[in-house]
Amino acid sequence: MIVADTCIWIEFLKKHEPYYSVFADMLENSRVLGIECIFGELLQGAKNKREIQIIGEYWHLVPKFSMEGLFIEAGKQSRLGNWHTRGVGLIDSVILIFARTTGSSIWTIDTKLLALMKSEEMFKPE
């Protein structure tokens, strides 16, 4: 399973390659986990009702994993690792903790988040 960062969702929704084809295949095969905060970011940037509808449809499509205390744990780990001083905000901290907890890989192009990740945590499309 993978967790796709907001930036990957945006590339997919804009149908930019190589993201679009790979991500579409992963969605069709239920290999993408949904995190509420990522969809919140997508909705925050939605430009119209159609975009809101599309994002909502994907939210209902993707499998989800609920973890109580996820934001609290992310805040603790971020503080301990000084992630915020390296430009990594709370949402990216949540993504990292979520992926580590679920054993998922992260697909991102965010260089600050990538700098915190171990190579085995990174999703690299083939």
Provide the fold topology.
Layout: E1 2-4, H1 6-13, H2 19-28, E2 32-33, H3 36-44, H4 49-61, H5 70-81, H6 90-102, E3 105-107, H7 111-116
Parallel strand pairs: 1-2, 1-3
Helix pairs in contact: 1-2, 3-4, 5-6
Question: Would you kindly provide a written description of the structure presented here, covering whatever features stand out?
Answer:
The protein is mainly α. The chain has one domain: 5'-nuclease (Rossmann fold, 3-Layer(aba) Sandwich), CATH 3.40.50. It is 56% helix and 6% strand. The chain is built from seven helices and three strands; from the N terminus they run βααβααααβα. α5 crosses α6. The longest helix has 13 residues, at 49-61.
Quick gist of this model?
This protein is mostly helical and 126 residues long. The chain contains 7 helices and 3 strands, in the order βααβααααβα.
CATH architecture classification: 3-Layer(aba) Sandwich
Q: Tally the beta strands.
A: 3
Would you tell me the structural class of the helices and strands? mainly alpha
The fourth-level CATH homologous superfamily is 5'-nuclease
- Mean pLDDT score: 95
Shape: globular
Write down the Rg: 14 Å
Number of domains: 1
Q: Could you give the order of strands across the largest sheet?
A: 2-1-3
Find the CATH topology. Rossmann fold
Number of helices: 7
What is the helix content? 55-70%
SSE pattern: EHHEHHHHEH
Which residues sit in consecutive blocks of at least 5 with pLDDT less than 50? Answer: none
Q: Ends: how far apart?
A: 15 Å
Name the CATH class: Alpha Beta
- Percentage of β-strand residues: 5-15%
Largest beta sheet, briefly? 3 strands, parallel
